[in-house]
Design goal:
It contains three helices and no strands. It has 63 residues and is mostly helical.
Length: 63
């Protein structure tokens, strides 16, 4: 997910994506602790996407 794509979304959609990715990251951490995580590299992309979403949300709030 690119930042330019995120800037086109509204604050409500970004909030929904934020909650979705936070939940997904939580589930992935649990799977990792139990040794059941199939794609550990996916955690990196989820964390980065979450950071991008939070950055865009803060930028929209500042305006």
């Amino acid at each position: 997910m690119k930042a330019a794509e995120l800037r086109d979304l509204g604050a409500e959609e970004l909030g929904a994506k934020d909650r979705e990715l936070t939940d997904q990251l939580f589930r992935m951490r649990i799977q990792k602790s139990m040794g059941q995580l199939e794609a550990p590299d996916k955690m990196r992309t989820v964390r980065r996407d979450l950071a991008r979403i939070k950055t865009v949300l803060r930028q929209k709030q500042a305006k």
